[in-house]
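This week, think about what follows.
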Amino acid sequence: MHQSSISREISRNSGEGRYVFKTAEKQAVRRRRSASRIPKKMKGALESLVLQCLEQDWSPEQISGRLKLEGICISHGAIYNTKSIID
């Protein structure tokens, strides 16, 4: 395993300055479960908002960053996919 992968694992799952593998495993399971509940496709109001921003010549990175500030997580890649549909 690459050292950056190990470093990321330790920093992501260290509680109170130390890494505990049982706690890390519980967190990984929780993340997996919550990730599977998140809708994978843009729909409704979010899709409309993204399309409006694209029409105003915002870049996918700008849209993704702005939505993140508002608590909405969407990757710029998903926005690129939407952009390719309307082009």
Summary: Strands lie at 14-15, 18-19.
